[in-house]
Design brief:
With 475 residues, the protein is α+β, with helices and mostly antiparallel strands. The strands form 4 sheets. It has a 6-stranded antiparallel sheet. The radius of gyration is 31 Å and the shape is elongated.
Length: 475
Amino acid sequence: MAVEGFLHSLSHDFSRLLSDADDHNVKIKVGEEPNTQIFWAHSVVLRARSKYFRAALSKDWGRFEGDKLILIKSNISPKIFQVALSFIYTGILLLDCLNEEEILELLIAADEMALGELLSHVECHLLNNRFKWLKNNFVLVHHTVFKHHNLTKLQEFCLQRISDDPNCLFSSEDFGSIDLKLLISLLERDNLLLEEIDIWKHVIKWGIAQNSSLPDDFSKWSADDFLTLKASLHDCIPLIRFEHIKPADFYLHLRPFQQIIPVEIFEDILRCKLMPGSIPKNGSLLPSRGELQSTIINVAHVSLISSWIDRREPLNYYTPVDSPYKFITLVRGTRDGFNPRTFRERCNDQGSTVVILKIHGTGQLIGGYNPIPWGCVDQGWISTKQSFLFSLGDGVNLANLTHSRVQKAECAIHENPYRGPKFGYSDFVMGLSGHAFNEPDSCLCQRRQYDKNIVEIEDLFHADEYEVFQVISKN
């Protein structure tokens, strides 16, 4: 308590030193006409508090009028400088007199004058007390903070905000004017909740915006035009996660820009598209973003399935931002094989899981959730009321969904060490008679123990792809 009292008294004495002393030796002209003001200060205090003032008031840089050091700060308003100068002397931050835009100005001034302590306090104040304003004025905020290297807390806020809601920036009218440093910072992030093909389109859009001379119709571009775009996107192209762009999107949206993609990257893209499951020869392709490693579902599907796991009502479904579960890939057919043995080796004893299969010929995505570890019994029925089946349609139009809950809990899941996943007697079965899931007529969906059919066809079918995910709480 005595220390707190001493510090309070010291702050008060320094406040009087600023306002009442008669031995100021620094004259500071602040602002531009008609809004200017003269401030008086002590060089010993300014130098002690800031390396900027140590340089500006040094023998090499300082200017004199008689015996007074002269400093001109025309790019800072008197109102903002008054708050900064008061903090320099007292350590007290007076922000009630400033609106949010003025607080941003104070941040810029603190950064320029190397007042790290002030900068940190102001950033924390904005994040803790003006968070709603930061979100509502996001374009202004991100344009401001990425021009100043030391505003790291607000830069991280901006990056996280864009990761959670990419459209707040990527779909904004001024996206083409953002700084290259910001764009690279976004592309480096693993939690950017945007389809990779959409990221590619936005990167191309940004690159074109940097070169106003490029024709609007890229089909009429010359080789030099592509070289111009390639130079602008040199540091961006390697950060695209090409492996997770679908073949159709590759043909429609990447192939026309082949000339801007480095040869080794393009060769690896072709290898992965034409030879599913192969390893990039040149090692030039980055893994997918975030914790979801999947070729058939995305984060929107994860949040939807997570909502079904927690039995949330449709109006209260999770979003990709607040989904509470991580989906960890255990097995993928085109990478690891389609036989039941591989499924058992990789998926038994892994806790709760989600199985998703892409039907050959229709492209329909169907699946099931098993809250009980596969392999928990040698053979026989497992009872649970929490399992369910689902259809995600084609995976694109999420209006065509089917969600099917188990009706006979005692026959929810069936275990056989030589078979694949089996939900109910025939509701969703993979690996009939021990066949690989991609062999003709190896899979079946006929409603028995669950309340809805998840496929329209009654015939047997097989998989083009399948994946199994371990479901883990983020907490």
